[in-house]
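Now read the record:
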Amino acid sequence: MLGRLVTHWKEIVGQDLADRAQPVKIHYRKVPGSKVAEATLEIASSTAEATLLHYRKELILERINQIFGERVVTALRFVPQAANEVRTGKARTVKKPVTSKDRAELANILESIDDPELKERLERLGTSILQER
């Protein structure tokens, strides 16, 4: 069930919050006198995103239960988690080291610049660009 939620997560919470909040766990509890268990979905997000998600709570529950065809998830619970700890699904890129030849070319290009602060910033920019290539 959680896998299905993850697959449809952007459709459920919206494109704007899908990368900043994620479903973590589903808790089931048996309701006395009922044959069907109720489920609570835990969503990890920062406090700010939890507030936004809280205002969309009914819409989110409706979309979740529409996917499953019945009212399976009855409540949402927001688990506080720092925004930078929520995985975005984007892999980190490994920067390659800059060769001495590239550094020499960069120094040659920047040698005509007199302002030391500007020169330093352009050198950092150039190094960063070379590492991404």
Observations:
- The longest strand covers residues 21-30.
- The radius of gyration is 24 Å.
